[in-house]
Amino acid sequence: MTGIQGKVIAITGASSGIGEATAAYLAGKGAQLVLGARREDRLDAVVDGITAKGGTATGVIADVTRRGDLQRLTETALHQYGRLDVLVSNAGTMAVSPFDDLRQDDWDAMVSTHITGLLNGIGAALPVFRRQRFGQFVNVGSTAAYVVKPPQTVYAATKTAVKVLTEGLRQESGPDLRVTLVSPGFTNTEGIGKGAGLEAAAPMIRQRDEIAMPPSAIASAIGYAIEQPDGVDVSEIVVRPTVQA
Ligand code: NDP
């Protein structure tokens, strides 16, 4: 199926930022959406905003670190719409800090959200895609995977894992599936302020605040990868502000 109209698309981390903007963009193009996140009130607001404009969206409380939650996300798509065309693995957390701060809970959160979370999505959607003989993974990485800039080393390492997992998945996918990595640079979202209380992260946070792109810039890049004809795989898109080194 070419285009976005009518496609069944599940998005993780859809309650704010890039996930929310992507949901709004795809809904505007006629996609049928299943949206996952942990914060119920924020997710409900996103779903309500889309349906108020005549779009189609269902919310599923889903923590990507929990295997069963991703299963429920994909099962909801199958029960409600009969298939799953695309899984956008977007959920993420940017808790940057220097190693000496020993913020090990933050390290764990980034590893479990970006690596285990992505694998849980693959585990839930791949059998569905194989059965259908079509499907697309869109994984949200980061420009942090291309240049290591402390104090975001742990974040960069987990996003490097996203890049590697995406490329390996693409090579194993065969002719029926499509696999896309979308790597944003500084984007103006709530996620950008997560390390704001940390002194060592402050200069980076300030720089991001000054130059960040709107999340709609990433939403349209994701849309571009989805709307290509079946046989066309947009393997990788990097989107950064022109002033970002
Ligand atoms: P936000 O904080 O606005 O959005 C993050 C989303 O992820 C929220 O919807 C949050 O929802 C969800 N989330 C976090 N942890 C989990 C979890 N365990 N399970 C399910 N959902 C979760 O930040 P962004 O929009 O900026 O981030 C989106 C993606 O873009 C992330 O992967 C991030 O790494 C990436 N990115 C962002 C950049 C930027 O500059 N903003 C640059 C490069 C990449 P909830 O809390 O409700 O679960």
Automatic annotation (TrEMBL):
Pfam families cross-referenced by the UniProt entry: adh_short (PF00106)
KW NAD (keyword) present: no
Key words of the record: Oxidoreductase
Domain of life: Bacteria
Keyword Oxidoreductase assigned: yes
Family: Belongs to the short-chain dehydrogenases/reductases (SDR) family.
Name of this chain's protein: SDR family oxidoreductase
The organism of origin for this protein: Streptomyces tubbatahanensis
